[in-house]
Amino acid sequence: MESPPLGARLGAEALGTFWLVFGGCGTAIMAGVFINSDKVSVGVGFLGIALAFGLTVLTMVYAVGHVSGGHFNPAVTVGLAVARRIEWKFVPAYIITQIIAGSLAGLILFIIANGKPGFDAVQSGFASNGYGDRSPGHYSLIACLIAEIVLTAFFLYVILGATDDRAPKGFAGLAIGLSLTLIHLVGIPITNTSVNPARSLAVAWFAGADALKQVWLFIVAPIIGAAIAGISYAVITGARGPAAEVDEGVAQNP
């Protein structure tokens, strides 16, 4: 199978990352807690936000995963590179594209959200991630660091396993989307769930200085977790080399 050109792959990554931020963070910002005219909360809550993130990835993996591999996340790109599912020479372009596309989605969400009278991105948190006082459950830095490492590692295990050439064909997108939903159900009360540096940066730009001061954790921890999974997947499961790879490292079987 001939590999898609790099420009097409980056275009697919841009679409997927934009949709992940716009759909997932947009749900958290616009509908996570919504007060109707009777002053009653009718928001979608944690479950709705978790489903939104899972559905964005599920839909875009099937839509464009066959073009780029369906990463939409710098940590995923690094983890797949460590596991030899994508060549390292493509990693910088993927990551830059993901960060730009996610940040563009964050900007558009910021413009839309400010169309509501009284909206304040800093006061609302703007779906940003945090630890300590900025953690939804006031979890410590260490607790948040561990949670993000573990959650990202298992996200990569699911991705690597679901796209392994020994796995059933055609179900990877479903497994990946549902795993991200589960990850958010666990992680939202702890950190607001990152597992994706592009998603964290996308909204931190607009959430104030405190969000930007803490965003380092949501860059470092997901990368560590992804690298752990990339290194250990083959050892744990007995995979023989880059199982789901085509020319120039694009993952098959989205």
UniProtKB/TrEMBL annotation:
<dbReference type="InterPro" id="IPR022357">
    <property type="entry name" value="MIP_CS"/>
</dbReference>
<dbReference type="InterPro" id="IPR034294">
    <property type="entry name" value="Aquaporin_transptr"/>
</dbReference>
<comment type="similarity">
    <text>Belongs to the MIP/aquaporin (TC 1.A.8) family.</text>
</comment>
<keyword id="KW-0813">Transport</keyword>
<keyword id="KW-1133">Transmembrane helix</keyword>
<dbReference type="GO" id="GO:0015267">
    <property type="term" value="F:channel activity"/>
</dbReference>
<keyword id="KW-0472">Membrane</keyword>
<feature type="transmembrane region" description="Helical">
    <location>
        <begin position="139"/>
        <end position="159"/>
    </location>
</feature>
<feature type="transmembrane region" description="Helical">
    <location>
        <begin position="93"/>
        <end position="113"/>
    </location>
</feature>
<dbReference type="Pfam" id="PF00230">
    <property type="entry name" value="MIP"/>
</dbReference>
<feature type="transmembrane region" description="Helical">
    <location>
        <begin position="12"/>
        <end position="35"/>
    </location>
</feature>
<keyword id="KW-0997">Cell inner membrane</keyword>
<feature type="transmembrane region" description="Helical">
    <location>
        <begin position="41"/>
        <end position="64"/>
    </location>
</feature>
<dbReference type="GO" id="GO:0016020">
    <property type="term" value="C:membrane"/>
</dbReference>
<keyword id="KW-0677">Repeat</keyword>
<dbReference type="InterPro" id="IPR000425">
    <property type="entry name" value="MIP"/>
</dbReference>
<feature type="transmembrane region" description="Helical">
    <location>
        <begin position="171"/>
        <end position="195"/>
    </location>
</feature>
<feature type="transmembrane region" description="Helical">
    <location>
        <begin position="215"/>
        <end position="236"/>
    </location>
</feature>
<dbReference type="InterPro" id="IPR023271">
    <property type="entry name" value="Aquaporin-like"/>
</dbReference>
<protein>
    <submittedName>
        <fullName>Aquaporin Z</fullName>
    </submittedName>
</protein>
<keyword id="KW-1003">Cell membrane</keyword>
<keyword id="KW-0812">Transmembrane</keyword>
